């Protein structure tokens, strides 16, 4: 499998560059505790991440990944989401870490002349501080959150918006992520996609989504891009 002529690398955030599950799990459980509900182990909460904080909160309230219409009222979910935001703001990413070789890998790709962008389903308000914590704020030419546009991944809109903003056609972009939402968004945008197996994908192997290629380590992905994209 080869790729060529790529200029833009669009990265997912949670589960791809950073392991944010410990903080997201703490914030989720703090919200549940405030509401007098049972808390959940981190391994359960990991499988509820990927579609933004609203769905994470709703999944935690009903205790399962599939939330049916009518399971919750809008008011209930609004209130719980507010509590989650307060808890996550207070926690402030204290247990969030970068995956191995992400820092050096991003810098290597940036130095090689690639344009880097970030498209996460996380609400945008939480993103700048985390980027700053890792010193990545100047690496990304465009940063989109799950609430930056009316639709989020797996919709192609945030990816296509980034391309338009940067004046780069989708054919010259690659979407890189850990979740089916990333791979589907990339495929919906007619982009090549690269999967990473170590993140959060509802317990499913990312290879089942048929990305252009998949890797178990970030360093291997960086090497592959540098070698195959002439
Ligand atoms: O907030 C989420 O649900 C996941 O965020 P991500 O798109 O950066 O993986
Ligand atoms: Mg992710």
From TrEMBL:
It comes from the Bacteria. Signal peptide: none annotated. Its cofactor is Mg(2+). It catalyses: 2-phosphoglycolate + H2O = glycolate + phosphate. The active site is at residue 12. Keywords: Carbohydrate metabolism, Hydrolase, Magnesium, Metal-binding. Gene3D superfamilies: HAD superfamily/HAD-like (3.40.50.1000), Putative phosphatase, domain 2 (1.10.150.240). Mg(2+) binds at residues 12, 14, 178. Specifically catalyzes the dephosphorylation of 2-phosphoglycolate. Is involved in the dissimilation of the intracellular 2-phosphoglycolate formed during the DNA repair of 3'-phosphoglycolate ends, a major class of DNA lesions induced by oxidative stress. Belongs to the HAD-like hydrolase superfamily. CbbY/CbbZ/Gph/YieH family. This is Phosphoglycolate phosphatase.
